[in-house]
């Protein structure tokens, strides 16, 4: 994995924890976004720990460039932030980051997050994604959609239903229960939705639901 942070002591601490853990290989360290893009291309890590706020190229731009240039499968990017409602986190999720982690998290939380992201699992509860996205959807002035937004025209009625519930913070199991379908069917609808919209992560799907007005902040289920 690749560790990116402009503060040497923080980066060294992260690397030390990761290298002491079994099954984790740190293939590089970067002190800014530009170096991160170069190292990601050279080392092709499975997971990248990406600081958001850095001088020069920030973590959002670096995330976009790394994912745009990556070979399949692309790396899973876990962004590091000081505050969980940081506007930069919203931008990183929109850019395709798989999740975020607070910088004051302990070693156990760090290793658990890296393991979850590395295996493709959701890193944080869907409700956390919803809370984050709602906070910034309010600022951006997203408005209710009377009809499916044009960007979502390719989706079936059921796919729209699943996307709405994902954006509301429901888990796959909760969506299955609400729609009287199996979890496998929920996953199928979600995968088709993400393919049609050219999305890489569940967080991106949530962002799209709010930005298109399919779902509006504060609305009930």
UniProtKB/TrEMBL annotation:
Domain of life the protein comes from: Bacteria
Keyword Phosphoprotein: yes
Span of domain HTH luxR-type: 148-213
InterPro entries: CheY-like_superfamily, NreC/VraR/RcsB-like_REC, Sig_transdc_resp-reg_receiver, Tscrpt_reg_LuxR_C, WalR-like
Annotated Gene3D superfamilies: 3.40.50.2300
Organism: Streptomyces alboflavus
Top-level taxonomy: Bacteria, Bacillati, Actinomycetota, Actinomycetes, Kitasatosporales
Example GO biological process: regulation of DNA-templated transcription
4-aspartylphosphate, modified sites: 51
Record carries keyword Chaperone: no
SMART domains, A to Z: HTH_LUXR (SM00421), REC (SM00448)
Key words, A-Z: DNA-binding, Phosphoprotein, Transcription, Transcription regulation
GO molecular function, one term: DNA binding
Protein name: LuxR family transcriptional regulator
Response regulatory domain location: 1-118
